[in-house]
Amino acid sequence: MNLYITRLNGIENQPKFLQCMTAEIAHWLGFREMGIYYYNANAESDGNRSVRYDGMIAGISAGDVVVFQFHTWNGLKFERGLVDRVKAYHGRAVIFIHTVEALMIRSSGFMLGETVELFNQAEVLIVPSYAMKRFLVDSGIRPDMKFVVQEMWDYTTGINFTGEPVFRKEIHCAGGFAPNMVQNWNSDVALKLYNSSMDVPNRNVTNMGTLKAEELVIALSKGGFGLEWYHDEQAYKYMKYGNSLSLSRYLAAGIPVIVPAGISCRKLIEDNHLGLVVNTPDEAVRAIEAMSEPEYRKYVQHVGQFAVALRNGYYTKKCLIDSVQALFREDLGKTFLQESDIYDLDDYKFVSAVLKKSYGGKLVLSWNLEGEADGFFLYDASGRMIEETENSRQHYFLVGGREETEGFQVKAYINTPKGKMIVAKSALVQLGAGEYEKPLVSIVIPAYNAQDGIARSIDTVLAQSFPDVEIIVVDDGSTDNTPNIVDWYASNYQNVTAIHQENAGVQAARNMGIAHARGEFTGFIDSDDMIRLDVVEKMYHSVKKNHCDIAVMSAYKIDNRGYEEFMRYPLKEDAAMPVENFLRMYASEAYALPALWNKLYRTSLVKEYPLPPIVYEDEAWTPYVLSYAETVCYLNIHGYEYDRSTCSGSLVDKWAGKSRDEVLEDHKRSIMFYLEHGNPKRKELLKKLADNELAYFGRVMSYPKYEEVRKQIAELV
C-alpha cells in the first residue's frame, strides 16, 4: 500500500501555502506527492481531461490511499472525475476539506448539493471542526461516512525564535477585518494592519504594508495580540465551521490571540488560555487596557507551549494518521447517539448547573447552556437516564422522589439524520449550602393566589449564579396555598423573606418589597415568570462596571406556541447611555409598552419614586422612574421569561369586562401620572412616549377617542 497526497501548483497566496505546507508535512510521514495544476479546466474537452487524469495517477495501484486536498480550484467536475478515476483503479479516497465554497460564499450556495455528492465518494472526510461535521451530516453526507476532525491549522516554520514577546498594548491584524472597524478606531491601543492597501486616517492605526511570510511571523513575535476577525456576517458564519491560517500564524509566532465568540475553535482557545474570546473588538480593547504584564506573561507562557505543536505540524500529522487508520476501522462509522459519547462542539457549553430544594419535597435542577440545543437528557449519579425533555430552551426541571444526597447531570443534544447527538454535558451536581452573605441585589416577587407558579419563580431566583441575592416575597392577602409555600421557602433559605399583608393590589405589594429591600440594586419578577440562571450576575456586573442607575435586558415571551423574542432593543450592549437615549428609543418604536420586570434598578431610586396606586401601575411607573435616572445599560441576554402559557395576562384579558371608555380612562390616568410626576427635564420625551402608547391602544381597541386624548397630550405645556 502506497500513500499519496495531492498538491496544488500554479496558484498563489493562501490556497497554495496551505496545500504545500500540508503536502510537506505528509512527506515527513511517507506520503508521495500527486501534483495538480490550476488551469482553465472548464475549457478542456472530456478526452483531454481523461488523458490528464491518467497522467496524474499513473503510479496508483489497487489498495493505494490518496488524500485529496479540497479544493483543487479546478471546479467540481474536475474534482469528481479525478476521484472517480482513482476509485476505478481500486484506490481508496480520503478528502481533506480546506474550505467549502458553498458555505463560505453566499452566491455559491447552489453548489452545496454537488459538493456533498463529491464528498460522498470518499471513505473518510477530514473536516475543520465538529460544527462542520454536523453541518455536512445535516446536508446529506451518507450515514456510514467516517470523519476525522482537524480543529486547527498548523503553521510550520524554520524560524529560530529567541526571547519572549513583549507586553505591548497593540493589536496586529494580518487576516480579515471590517473596514469600518479601522475607520472608527478611536482607542489608545494601537492597531497594526498587514497585507492591506487601505488608507488609515486614524492616529493610532498603522498600515505595515505587505511582508513576506517569515518577515511577518518575526514582526508578530515581538509582542502584542493577534486579531482574527471578519469583514461581514457571511465571513463570521463561516468562521463557525472553518479554520483560519492567520490565527495559527499568530499562535506560531507566540502571541495571544483575539477571536470572536462562536467560532469553531473558541473552546480550544479558552481551555488552553491562548487569548481573548470577545463579542466585539471594543470588548478586546477594554480587556487589553485593563490587563497587567503578569497576566500577559501567563498568556504568552500558554501560547509558547501550544505553538510547538503548530510549528512542527502535529495537527496535520494526526489528521493524516487518523484518516489512514479510519480506512481500516469499522467502529468509526457508528451512528451518533451513544449515551456515553460527547461530541464536543464549540457552539455548546454548560456554564453551570445547580441543584436546590424545592417546595413539596422535590429537588430542582437548573442549568445554563451556551448554544441552542434541541433537548436535554437528565441522568442520576449512577449514569442512568431519568428524563428526556425536548424543550430547546429548558433550564429548569423538578426531580421528585429522590434523596437529597443524590447527584445529577444534564446532557444537551441536537437532532441529526443519524439520531440524537450529545454535544455537551454538565458537571455532576449535588445539593449544597448556599454562599449567601449579604444582600447586594434584592428581588421582589408580589404574589396573590399564585400557588401554581410561585415555587417555580422562587426556584429560578434561588438558582442564580450570583450568590448575594435576597428574595422578598410579598403575599398580598392570598386565599389559596400561596402563604404556606412562601413561608416554607423563608424557613428553608436564609436569603428568602416572607411578608404577608391584606390584599391591597400588586403595586402595594411591590412597594412593600421595595421598603424592605436592603440590596444596592432591586429587581422584580412576577409570580408566574422565570429568570435564567445567570441574569442577576450579568445585570449587576453591567450596572457596576458602567456606573448606571438601571440595567435593561431582552426577554422571551412564552405562550402555547412556545418561545418568542420579546423586549429586544436596537441598542449598544453593556455600555452606559444617557437615559434620554433610552426614552427616545422607546418613543420611536412602532410601539413599546414599558415593562418594569426586565430591569435592575438602583434601590435608592425606587425607594424615592415608588409605584402609584392606579390601574396599569407598571405602565405608569416605568417611564416615571426612568425619567429620574441618569444612565442606563442594556444586555441582549433574553434572561427574563414572561410566561403566558399557564395564565392570562394579555391586554385583552386586562380589558375584559370593562367598557372602552373605562379602559381609555385607565390608560389616560397611567399616562398622565408619568407626565405630571415625571422629571420635568424629560417631559418632551415622555410626551412622545405617551403619544406612541395612545396610538397603539387606539389601533388595538379600534376606538377613535384615543385620537382626542393624543391631541390633548400634544397641547400640554
How much of the sequence lies in strands comes to: 15-25%
Largest sheet, in brief, is: 10 strands, mixed
Radius of gyration: 30 Å
Oligomer: single chain
Number of strands: 30
Helix- and strand-based class? alpha/beta
| Percent helix | 25-40%
Kindly report how far apart the N and C termini lie. 91 Å
Q: What average pLDDT do the residues reach? A: 88
Q: Which blocks of ≥5 consecutive residues have pLDDT under 50?
A: 335-340, 648-655
Helix run count: 25
Question: Features of this protein?
Answer:
about 725 residues; 10-stranded mixed β-sheet; alpha/beta
Describe this structure in words.
With 717 residues, this protein is α/β, with parallel strands linked by helices. It is built from 25 helices and 30 strands. The strands form five sheets. Strands 21, 22, 23, 24, 25, 26, 27, 28, 29 and 30 form a ten-stranded mixed beta sheet that branches. The protein is elongated and about 90 Å long.
Q: Outline of this structure?
A:
With 717 residues, the protein is an alpha/beta fold.
Please render the helix and strand layout as text.
Elements: E1 3-9, H1 14-28, E2 32-37, H2 46-56, E3 65-70, H3 76-88, E4 92-97, H4 101-104, H5 112-119, E5 124-127, H6 130-138, E6 146-149, E7 166-173, H7 179-183, E8 190-193, E9 205-207, H8 213-220, E10 223-227, H9 233-239, H10 245-252, E11 257-260, H11 266-271, E12 275-278, H12 281-290, H13 293-311, H14 314-327, E13 349-358, E14 362-370, E15 375-380, E16 385-389, E17 396-399, E18 407-416, E19 419-425, E20 429-430, E21 441-447, H15 454-462, E22 469-476, H16 482-492, E23 496-501, H17 506-516, E24 521-524, E25 530-531, H18 535-546, E26 550-559, E27 562-566, E28 577-578, H19 579-588, E29 599-602, H20 603-608, H21 617-627, E30 631-643, H22 651-655, H23 660-677, H24 683-701, H25 705-714
Parallel strand pairs: 1-2, 1-3, 3-4, 4-5, 5-6, 7-8, 7-10, 8-9, 10-11, 11-12, 21-22, 21-24, 22-23, 26-30
Antiparallel strand pairs: 13-14, 14-17, 15-16, 15-18, 18-19, 18-20, 24-29, 25-30, 26-27, 26-29, 28-30
Helix pairs in contact: 2-3, 19-24, 21-23, 23-24, 24-25
